[in-house]
Amino acid sequence: MDERQREFLFELIETPSPTGFEAAGQRVWIDYVESFADEVRTDAYGNAIAVHEGSGGPEIAVTGHADEIGFVVRRIDDDGFLHLSRVGGTDKTVSRGQHVTVHASDESVDGVVGQTAIHLRDRDEDSEVADITEQYVDIGAADREEATELVDVGDPLTVSSTVEDLQGSRLTGRAMDNRVGVWAAAETLRQAHEADTEATVYAVSTVQEEVGGNGAQMVGFDLEPDAAVVVDVTHATDTPGLPGKKQIDVELGGGPSVRRGQPDHPVLVDALRTVASDQETEIQIEAGSNTTLTDANSLFVQRGGIPSVNVGIPTRYMHTPVEVVDSEDLTATVELAGGFVERAADFTPYRTRI
Fold first, then answer.
1. Predicted TM-score of the model (pTM)
2. What is the mean pLDDT of the chain?
3. Which residues are designated catalytic?
4. What pLDDT is stored for residue 248 in this prediction?
5. 71-159 adopts what CATH topology?
6. What is the mean pLDDT of residues 297-323?
7. In the chain, where does the domain assigned CATH 3.40.630.10 lie?
8. Of 233, 188, 219, 182, nearest to 341 (Cα)?
9. Does the structural domain 3-68+174-347 have CATH classification 3.40.630.10?
10. What letter would DSSP give residue 81?
11. For residue 13, what are the CA distances in angstroms to 17, 151, 180, 200, 303?
12. Is the sign of the CA dihedral 41, 46, 47, 48 positive or negative?
């Protein structure tokens, strides 16, 4: 990863883009891809699509989702505290005591999620975790009147944090899920542009994945590509204390995972494995079951069926403010996706052989 790619990644991660309010992050993504895309466009809800125009090969979409989990102001009480609801799968066990930013209409407002001091809590409270709807944000307002001059019901919030380097090539921060995916989609497009691939490549940064893959449904209907490579995070299971029933063999730094299971298309799975083997890109195989909880679920049922496959970037502590990834896995993901689009015609037709 060169310095330009690293700066782009950090800016993506640090730009708040809660579900339904992705415009700021999409602007960062668009500004980056415009320098090498043949076309960049957005739709009514903010999905962003950048295109490399091929010369008659298959049409391949490489997607990630731009949105992140967060909160929304549900009500403002008489004392000026903001009461919350979840946006996406926000984890109630890590939200208290966090610095947050309210993304108000005029300007951002800093706050903290309140947590009663350990000295004042009943012992029983330590074994219970309050739901998000029972938690609140303190912005320092004296009362409701002062608070409503700054924020409004329906304003989104995100945890306030930056990206930090850990040891080696590892990084930590919020919103790795899934800025690393849209980063990979952009870099795959750049690689396709530099190689002048025969395939037409759509790099896609979708919205509203965290609440059901809504943006991907729109994109799948609009584009109707021959195949889609969906890049999202996947659980790295190389940390202590994971329940046995959740155990899968995915390690941080072991390369991206290629998922096998519904709805991952077997032809695409085999294609990615072939590409990885031929170019000596390290990958991990991940077993799937009935669903993916990614944009692949939305894409594969569009327009009579879009062959789709999940590529996972191993991530520790998903849906917390301290998600951890390995930048070498990101680079390997681009190598894998880029190698596939370069050879996309070799694996057609993307159909189940009957």
1. 0.96
2. 95
3. 209
4. 79
5. Elongation Factor Tu (Ef-tu); domain 3 (2.40.30)
6. 96
7. 3-68+174-347
8. 188
9. yes
10. P
11. 9, 24, 8, 28, 32
12. positive
